């Protein structure tokens, strides 16, 4: 009964409470700004850092739990807790905490990029700028690189530190396809000659969106114009006309004659694993390695990139929420996660297999050799081919725009 | 005849899927057109045990579900009795309002609940998660209990009171045994719902409260059927455990020589 | 005496009222979020919602699937309980029925895919038997425009729920009355009308309301087993809710709250009618 009364008064109290003010927060940011790295590490000592990240990949989880956790504990005495949660829900949680005026949040570190970063940045959910204080970022990364200054066209402003770099590749079953297509036109020809054997995830799925952007890059009058100028509906309208024409031409030759599309990459992967379609795709050049290993993808799986228009690559980042209680600990964790040793371990196909955003030219010879010699597995295309095909991302605002348009122009036709 | 018909239908439609999922959790991918592969693999189960928080998560999920169930039964029985055995102005309104949480999906309700829990100081704590789990469960329990009391009628209770039995004794010897079918349904439903709450637990628990769905849900988006099946099986066994525990408790609670034995079967 | 009686029900209702307070406060906070615009309060989103073309396309589709799933679940579940309740209640059979409820909707949807997809087990078995030569010959049951996959999944999951809700009703049904009526020469239909129906009706109504609200607003199953166009309204709400744009998030709120309000209104009307009927019955009983 006492408890009930307590809750009752608590609820009554709610109606009276107002918002708390945020002046303290800015002070905290200022404080950390003035601290030296040694002082930050001192503060970090003994802190627990909660890393919120998407948790649906065993390899990634293992990398964090089995490698990063003990190493970080040993190096900085920072305890890392990995909390699996979808990125959009993480942002949602932060927004609500901000609305309710909760200054001591539970999230200390987030893994994200693109739309989610844009949403978080626009709603002032992030702490920083902090990247200029991270030693390993300053030492081993090309801080001037546009890949790090912009995240899907949104200026990062030092609120995000680059953690990984991935490139878009297609996977195919070499027992069924001799010569994979190299251009969008050849892809069209492939679809025509092999009806029902190709499809892409619907817009709204991360990978499906990326596939449509490839078509946009390939069909636009000038890629430079798309990349250099911010989103404008006018440009988007004119430049995308041929995109819809291309996709609609392709529709009748797709899986299920284009009556529907896989709703997610998982669905496309499932179709591929069953041999229903002969190609799948994804935003990580090394991801097929693990799936072949587990016998889910056929052993004859290989990868390719389109020479024309190329292969879009992007960087994903780590950020610290504004209401984190362990900002110093989070910075220490970021410093470790960005270090060459942690990046090298991340590249191991056994864990994650993902590429590093590190600038190899800035490493000492021994580290550099270690990166270059690491065998990423047979399904991974060599670095030179990937670099040659590399295309950066366009403004994040294209993403929802293309989604809407795709439904109007393609799916509902 | 009726019996065998029921069992063949039930086994085909209800048991067979569970068995198939169990089989899937220990076999690699089955490809179309190829005979089913039975190269047994423990991969699904080892990845399940890989997360070192799994035991703690199992325990915490049980604790939360049982607490939620007990609160549900208390609130539900009291409210069910009141709604059934008395009539007052605004009763229809009250009944509608009590059903309202079921009409608003968790996605939309989560924000409001999160704000409430932050202000109550219960966010990021398992007690907050318990309170939030009440939201999608209590409406069911009240409904089930009200229906139970409706059928029980007030006559038996009145008779027992007339025979000078105290309210507790009446409850224990008359109401509870007769309501047992309803209690069972409610317990099962509440436990299952509580154990499958992902979004609410994640948002309110804030990472301090790691329950089974928190670890398990992300794997639902995986193309690795074997792992997914293994997780689903554990996930399904847990509520059965919780229901058994409640069943045991209720057997102790109901006196053996209770007036109605048939309810206690 | 009457006062004491009423007072006692107030005590009995206190925890439920407390719970209600919590829920209403939370829903109000959610609602406040939905009318908070970039600068100040606004109901624009609730108006703007009705101009969204995608919504109209999805609405009829959603409603059809929801109603078919709900009505079929209830009809079949009720049929099962009526035919088999005598031994479901006191047998291991009861546990069998509850199995599908133990799995989340998503898992069951995946199971339907595993079974009924063109690359599924049944299709594969038919190929093995030589009945079909290509998987394209297997009919499209999942990810189909008619929502067969979605409806199948919902039926499979909700029929056990209907059984669960109805089983206590039949377990506690006063059987003696039926015998009395039979002895007095009443027909089976008469027994149904006077004994079964009055107890079953309110539960059926509640189950129908709960299922309708749930199926209309759940996105997991249609996302897995539906087609890209038309989409169910719930998928649209989900896309909007987690999209980047603030406007769209508010649309999602507006949509879900309107749906909840409509369901609440239907529920209120139904309960008022039911309670009135019950009141009349009990009044006639006590004035005998």
Automatic annotation (TrEMBL), chain B:
GO terms for cellular component: plasma membrane. PROSITE patterns: ABC_TM1. Its main location: membrane. It is a multi-pass membrane protein. It comes from the Bacteria. GO terms for biological process: transmembrane transport. It is found in: Cell inner membrane; Cell membrane. The chain crosses the membrane at residues 54-75, 96-117, 123-142, 186-216, 228-249. Residues 58-246 form the ABC transmembrane type-1 domain. Keywords: Cell inner membrane, Cell membrane, Membrane, Transmembrane, Transmembrane helix, Transport. PANTHER family: INNER MEMBRANE ABC TRANSPORTER PERMEASE PROTEIN YDCV (PTHR43357). Belongs to the binding-protein-dependent transport system permease family. This is ABC transporter permease.
């Amino acid at each position: 009964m006492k408890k009930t009364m307590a809750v009752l008064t608590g609820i009554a109290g709610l109606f009276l409470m107002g918002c708390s003010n945020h002046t303290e927060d800015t002070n905290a940011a200022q404080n950390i700004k003035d601290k030296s790295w040694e002082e930050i590490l001192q503060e970090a000592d003994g802190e627990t850092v909660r890393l919120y990240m998407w948790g649906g990949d065993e390899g990634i989880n293992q990398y964090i739990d089995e490698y990063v956790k003990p190493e970080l504990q040993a190096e900085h005495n920072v305890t890392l807790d990995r909390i699996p949660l979808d990125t959009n829900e993480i942002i949602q949680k932060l927004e609500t905490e901000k609305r309710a005026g909760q200054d001591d949040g539970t999230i200390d570190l987030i893994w994200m990029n693109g739309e989610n970063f844009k949403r978080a940045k626009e709603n002032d959910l992030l702490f920083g700028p902090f990247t200029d204080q991270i030693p390993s970022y300053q030492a081993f990364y090309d801080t001037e690189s546009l890949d790090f200054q912009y995240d899907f066209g949104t200026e990062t402003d030092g609120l995000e530190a680059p953690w990984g770099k991935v490139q878009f590749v297609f996977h195919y079953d070499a027992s069924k396809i001799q010569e994979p297509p190299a251009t969008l036109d050849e892809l069209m020809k492939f679809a025509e000659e092999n009806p029902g054997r190709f499809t892409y995830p619907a817009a709204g799925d991360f990978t499906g969106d990326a596939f449509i952007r490839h078509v946009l890059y390939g069909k636009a009058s000038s890629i430079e114009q798309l990349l250099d100028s911010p989103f404008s509906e006018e440009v988007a309208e004119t430049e995308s006309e041929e995109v819809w024409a291309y996709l609609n031409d392709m529709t009748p030759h797709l899986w299920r004659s284009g009556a529907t599309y896989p709703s997610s990459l998982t669905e496309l992967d499932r179709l591929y694993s069953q041999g229903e379609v002969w190609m799948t795709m994804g935003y990580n050049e090394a991801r097929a390695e693990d799936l072949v290993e587990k016998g889910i993808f056929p052993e004859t799986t290989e990868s390719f990139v389109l020479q024309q228009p190329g292969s879009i690559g992007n960087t994903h980042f780590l950020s610290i929420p504004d209401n984190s209680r362990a900002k110093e600990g989070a910075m220490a964790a970021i410093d470790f996660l960005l270090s060459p040793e942690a990046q090298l371990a991340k590249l191991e196909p056994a864990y994650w297999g993902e590429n590093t955003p590190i600038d190899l030219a800035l490493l000492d010879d021994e580290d550099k050799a270690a990166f270059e010699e690491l065998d990423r597995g047979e399904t991974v295309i060599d670095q030179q081919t990937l670099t040659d095909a590399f295309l950066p991302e366009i403004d994040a605002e294209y993403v929802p725009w293309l989604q809407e348009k795709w439904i109007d122009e393609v799916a509902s036709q | 005849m009726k019996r065998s018909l029921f069992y063949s239908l039930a086994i085909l439609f209800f048991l067979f899927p569970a068995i198939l999922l169990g089989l899937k959790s220990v076999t690699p991918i089955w490809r179309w057109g190829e005979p089913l592969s039975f190269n047994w693999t423990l991969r699904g189960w080892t990845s399940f045990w890989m997360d070192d928080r799994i035991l703690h998560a199992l325990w915490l999920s049980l604790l939360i579900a049982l607490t939620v169930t007990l609160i549900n039964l208390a609130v539900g029985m009291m409210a069910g009795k009141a709604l059934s055995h008395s009539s007052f102005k605004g009763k229809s309104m009250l009944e509608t309002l009590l059903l309202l949480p079921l009409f608003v999906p968790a996605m939309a309700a989560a924000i409001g609940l999160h704000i409430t829990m932050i202000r109550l100081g219960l966010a990021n704590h398992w007690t907050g998660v318990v309170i939030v789990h009440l939201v999608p469960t209590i409406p069911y329990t009240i409904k089930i209990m009200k229906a139970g009391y409706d059928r029980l009628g007030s006559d038996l209770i009145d008779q027992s009171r007339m025979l000078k039995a105290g309210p507790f004794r009446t409850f224990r010897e008359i109401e509870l045994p007769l309501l047992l079918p309803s209690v069972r349904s409610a317990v099962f439903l509440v436990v299952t719902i509580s154990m499958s709450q992902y979004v609410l637990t994640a948002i309110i628990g804030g990472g301090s409260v790691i329950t089974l769905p928190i670890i398990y849900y992300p794997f639902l988006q995986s193309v690795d059927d074997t792992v997914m099946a293994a997780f689903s099986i554990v996930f399904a066994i847990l509520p059965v455990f919780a229901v058994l525990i409640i069943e045991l408790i209720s057997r102790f609670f109901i006196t053996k020589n209770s007036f109605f034995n048939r309810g206690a079967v | 005496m009457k006062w004491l009686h009423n007072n006692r029900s107030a005590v009995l209702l206190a925890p439920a009222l407390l719970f209600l307070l919590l829920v209403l406060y939370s829903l109000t906070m959610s609602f406040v979020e939905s009318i908070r615009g970039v600068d100040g309060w606004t109901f624009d989103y609730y108006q703007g919602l009705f101009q969204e073309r995608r919504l109209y396309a999805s609405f009829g589709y959603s409603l059809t699937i929801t109603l078919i799933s709900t009505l079929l679940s209830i009809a079949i579940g009720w049929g099962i309980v009526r035919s088999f309740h005598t031994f479901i209640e006191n047998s291991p059979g009861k546990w069998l029925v509850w199995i599908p409820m133990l799995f989340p909707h998503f898992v069951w949807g995946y199971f339907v895919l595993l079974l009924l997809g063109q690359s599924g087990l049944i299709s594969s078995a038919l190929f093995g038997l030589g009945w079909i030569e290509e998987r394209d010959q297997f009919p499209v049951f999942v990810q189909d425009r008619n929502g067969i996959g979605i409806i199948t999944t919902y039926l499979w999951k909700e029929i056990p729920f209907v059984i669960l809700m109805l089983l206590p009703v039949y377990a506690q049904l006063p059987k003696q009355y039926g015998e009395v009526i039979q002895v007095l020469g009443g027909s089976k239909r008469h027994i149904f009308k006077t004994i079964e129906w009055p107890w079953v009706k309110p539960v059926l109504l509640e189950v129908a309301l709960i299922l309708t609200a749930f199926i209309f607003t759940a996105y997991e199953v249609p996302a897995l087993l539906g087609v890209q166009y038309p989409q169910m309204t719930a998928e649209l709400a989900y896309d909007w809710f987690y999209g980047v744009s603030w406007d769209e998030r508010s649309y999602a709120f507006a949509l879900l709250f309107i749906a909840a309000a409509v369901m609440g209104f239907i529920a209120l009307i139904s309960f008022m009618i039911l309670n009135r009927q019950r009141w009349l019955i009990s009044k006639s009983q006590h004035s005998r």
